[in-house]
Amino acid sequence: MAYDYINDGNIDADALxxxxxxxxxxxxxxxxxxxxxxxDENHPLSTNEIIAKMKELGLEVNRKTVKDDVxxxxxxxxxxxxxxxxxxxxxxxxxxxxxxxxxxxVDAISASKIISTKASNSLIEKLQxxxxxxxxxxxxxxxxxxxxxxxxxxxxxLIIDKLTKAIGKKRRVNFKYNEYNINKELQPRHDGKVYDxxxxxxxxxxxxxxxxxxxxxxxxxxxFRIDRIDGSSLVVSKEQxxxxxxxxxxxxxxxxxxxxxxxxxxxxxxxxxxxxxxxxIMVDRFGVDxxxxxxxxxxxxxxxxxxxxxxxxxWLAKFGDDIKVISPPQVANDYKEYLEKILMQYK
Length: 347
Description:
Arc Repressor Mutant, subunit A, 5-stranded antiparallel beta sheet, 16 strands
């Protein structure tokens, strides 16, 4: 089919507009666009308003064509709600996302420490197209609240894209890893060491995004914050990545670690004696299937495999005397030493 508005691959805007004015299919597409962008439960468009807007676009419509087009959209599965009256009104009802769902996504993007301000604004603008223009305004009220905590890495999207492709192609990645020095200046860790990693997955944890993978030189699982990976040095290698562990590694890793920088060699089976008021917190943290046993009317024991790190001890400390390490003895002793070192600073 030849299109008069396309010449050598270029679109002639004037010719395109003329083609639209005389095209019945364009009328249907314009109605769908109008309902999506300009209507919702609180902002319906009447038949007369639709006719007026269509005429402004050079499209000839009448009450019958509006009704027929709406009926056709409904037949094709669009949830166009009709408000019956002498001048019927219409609005787009159910959409792919509820306003509350879009709001949660916008708030999560705004609060994210991994997504730059520019990238956040771009993502939010895309989400705004999934609701009416009136609802789109409601999505923006707290967009800039967390602007001060946005990341220093400006190419996070490119880093995530490369890592995702490497995971899909089962290829290793090489990169340098940044950290701050005492002067708050970014510098490569370990004198510019280049890490050789078989990427397992990307995981969101405690407001940060991490890469979890196997380091080729040490054959151990390592974790890296995405926004600290040096994007300029990130390369997808031709080398085959090592085989991923079992499918449920992600859920196990998330439950067992209290710091995403945990090392799997520190995994231990730990028994914690908790006061009963902590049961909801423990279920939220470890899942409803966590192993628990009632000890007496005031306490229960919780048994779980954990990565024993300073992050774990820090988590324990916030519960004070509501929780006690029962076993293994070495973990209990290490926790005691951790607390003693803190107390020494106040003597």
